[in-house]
Amino acid sequence: MLIIPTVLIYMWEPVFVSGILVTLFVCTFWMKLISYVHTNHMLRSQYIQKKSDGEDEKEILCTYKPEQIGIKDIYYFLIIPTLCYQTNYPRTERIRIRYILEKVLVALLLSGVEYVIGGQYLHPLIEHSLEHIENANYLNISERVLKLSVPNLYLWLIGFYIIFDVYLNILAEITRFGDRKFYGDWWNAQTVGHYWRNWNLPVHNWMRRHVYNPCSKRFSTKTSLLICFFVSAFFHEYVLSVPFGQVKLWAFLGILAQVPLVVITEKFKDHHYTGNIMFWISIVLGQPFLILLYYRDFVKTRY
Length: 303
Hints:
Blueprint lengths: L2 H10 L3 H37 L4 H5 L9 H9 L17 H31 L2 H5 L3 H38 L16 H7 L2 H16 L4 H24 L5 H7 L1 H9 L7 H29 L1
């Protein structure tokens, strides 16, 4: 499933923003299918085990009904804003049209703001940075990273709000999906670990259920966490490398670099705001640096 869009993007070479959207959609679809198969396999195994143990069938069917698993069931799961499958979800009573229209208006306005920031501030700074990168002028590179940090931070925060507070809530409202907790208070994170556990709850819940929990039955806690970061690093690299038409492993290495940061910030989580400051520095400076690296390689490949 991940190979077909990769081949198509390499053949057609679309605008990289479109490529990123396609790879995000494919990853989401793939993760949903993994959850659907894994969860149903687990529930069916429990169902067969309970029947063989002679438990009351009415009690068993309260939690899992095999006859309910069908096309309608999987189609509904594919469109709701969650990555973890379960047989029942909390549902709202009705669809609020006014709420949807308000969210759509907010999405359009903020998308316009993102377009202005990206076109008027971010893109010119990136283009003017290529010469310094090629000449290995580290002082000017540092200056460019600092200049990029502010517009990039605004772009990232607005993008986060559009996706997790606007788009996912619109999708939840249309499908009457009741669980609307898509993120936690990651901005108050005292450690990098707290950030990764709270900034994207749908992915965090998927990683915990389908990667960490199965791995923890065979490996230690630290090894299981390392595997989770490895899987996350793979998907980050896939989402960026395919649209840019190259595999440089910058995102992959950037995510793996979070592992020592998790360990370091854990030691400072009780020192007032030290851990939070370290977390924000890694976000504010790390992202612009990765942008410069990917854009340099993109220009070299395409032009």
